[in-house]
């Protein structure tokens, strides 16, 4: 049997792992070898999983990091916005893309204006001391816009505003809001129906701010025009004389439409200048309406050089128009004076009104109606009357003075300067005396 076993072992030898005999002496090595013997070839050790207590800590850390990042971004945005807000504020004035508003010392809004010809690109705005300027509109159109702060006295703050277009043919329009019903505004133009304070009815497109026949329409401007408005809230605005100014209004929103343009208008640009309009004005606010009005009057308006006779204010002015209209003559004037004295009224001023001349613009008495004007004046003065005559700047085309005025160039001329500019007024069609010409002044002397 032993022999057979040995033969069998030799015939079928066992294949043993390397290190079989030596590993028998190291138990740890034997155990490791046994373990790797039975593990599959594609086995990989499992990764350790985080504990349940660690997950909330990681989430809190990520959330905290996001909050810190958001706070930094918000602070940067706030800082930029704050710097921009400071850049767009001028003392009591706050500028935005669509307009500006002005507060008084108490923080109450006393003036508000909107840009109707375009919004500003606020990123194009910069400050240089008291001057705040912008170079672009929101749609990228170039312009020259600035607001300059001026403090002429302790109780008055003023802002010079200018919007100048770089493109010809455009109109510049700003809307000035009159505020609520508690704010009263005064000034502007003489109108056919005069409201005091200003009352806006309906809608009116901006029209040239020039004198016209006040009876031609309810929206026509009369013979008294001032580019000046005053508020009961101690705010005032004066539009510059250089502006090709047009005025309209919107009764619904209680706003005046201030517009500058050179197209479809009697205004013409100065010689050598492009027809790119500018709208410029000064807005001033003060502590009370009296002080702000006094400042504006001293700054922009000349005072009378002489005071009229006190009798002109104290006593009546008797006018022949009220009784006789155009049918006036020498006999009626003397009878009128006699009736005044008989009824024991003052022998104050007596005005000889319409149609004492042959035609409008003659400036000489009609010898048929007034055969002895010198004697009439003597008799009136002896009765204590001061006599005045109704005069006007119009010389109608059928007047004997019309040809003389054309030849001597005494009339306002049309834009080319070659012909007199004819106008229609309520007594016909005629030319207008140019009183900037000394020769025209002599016609009435």
From TrEMBL:
GO molecular function: hydrolase activity, hydrolyzing O-glycosyl compounds
Superkingdom of origin: Eukaryota
Biological process, per Gene Ontology: carbohydrate metabolic process; positive regulation of insulin-like growth factor receptor signaling pathway; positive regulation of phosphatidylinositol 3-kinase/protein kinase B signal transduction; skeletal muscle fiber development
Keyword vocabulary terms for this entry: Glycosidase, Hydrolase, Membrane, Transmembrane, Transmembrane helix
Residue ranges crossing the lipid bilayer per the database entry: 57-80
Database matches in Pfam families: Glyco_hydro_31_2nd
A cellular-component GO term for this protein: endoplasmic reticulum membrane
Domain Glycoside hydrolase family 31 TIM barrel, first and last residues per copy: 320-442
Gene3D superfamilies (UniProt xref): Glycosidases
Disordered: region residues: 1-22
Signal peptide (UniProt feature, chain positions): none
Family, per entry: Belongs to the glycosyl hydrolase 31 family.
Protein name, UniProt field: Myosis regulating glycosidase
Highest classification ranks of the organism: Eukaryota, Metazoa, Chordata, Craniata, Vertebrata
């Amino acid at each position: 049997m032993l022999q057979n076993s040995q033969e069998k072992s030799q015939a079928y030898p066992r294949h043993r792992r390397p290190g079989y005999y030596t590993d028998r002496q190291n138990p740890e090595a034997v155990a490791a070898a046994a373990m790797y013997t039975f593990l599959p070839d594609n086995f990989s050790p499992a990764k350790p999983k985080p504990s349940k207590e660690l997950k909330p800590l990681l989430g809190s850390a990520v959330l905290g990091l996001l909050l810190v990042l958001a706070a930094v971004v918000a602070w940067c945005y706030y800082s930029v916005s704050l710097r921009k807000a400071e850049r767009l504020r001028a003392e009591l004035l706050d500028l935005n893309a669509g307009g500006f508003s002005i507060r008084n010392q108490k923080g109450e809004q006393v003036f508000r204006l909107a840009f109707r010809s375009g919004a500003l690109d606020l990123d194009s705005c910069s400050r240089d001391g008291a001057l705040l300027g912008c170079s672009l509109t929101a749609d990228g159109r170039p312009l020259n816009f600035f607001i300059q702060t001026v403090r002429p006295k302790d109780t008055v703050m003023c802002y010079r505003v200018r919007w100048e277009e770089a493109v010809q043919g455009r109109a510049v329009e700003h809307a000035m809001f009159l505020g609520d019903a508690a704010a009263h505004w005064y000034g502007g133009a003489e109108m056919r129906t005069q409201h005091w304070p200003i009352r806006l009815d309906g809608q009116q497109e901006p029209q040239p701010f020039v004198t016209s026949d006040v009876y031609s329409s309810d929206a026509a401007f009369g013979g008294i025009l001032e580019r000046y408005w005053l508020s009961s809230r101690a705010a005032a605005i004066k539009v510059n004389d250089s502006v090709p100014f047009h005025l309209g209004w919107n009764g619904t929103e209680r706003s005046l439409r201030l517009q500058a343009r050179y197209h479809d208008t009697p205004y013409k640009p100065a010689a050598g200048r492009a027809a790119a309009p500018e709208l410029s004005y000064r807005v001033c606010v003060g502590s009370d309406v009296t002080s702000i009005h006094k400042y504006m009057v001293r700054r922009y308006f000349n005072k009378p050089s002489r005071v009229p006779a006190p009798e002109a204010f104290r006593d009546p002015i008797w006018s022949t128009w009220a009784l006789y209209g155009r049918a006036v003559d020498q006999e009626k004037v003397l009878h009128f004076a006699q009736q005044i004295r008989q009824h024991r009224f003052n022998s104050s001023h007596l005005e000889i009104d319409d149609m004492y001349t042959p035609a409008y613009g003659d400036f000489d008495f009609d010898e048929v109606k007034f055969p002895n004007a010198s004697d009439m004046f003597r008799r009136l003065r002896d009765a204590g009357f001061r006599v005045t005559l109704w005069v006007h700047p119009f010389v109608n085309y059928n007047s004997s003075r019309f040809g003389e005025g054309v030849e001597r160039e005494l009339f306002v001329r049309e834009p080319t300067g070659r012909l007199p500019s004819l106008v229609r007024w309520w007594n016909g069609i005629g030319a207008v005396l140019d009183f900037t010409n000394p020769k025209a002044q002599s016609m009435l002397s």
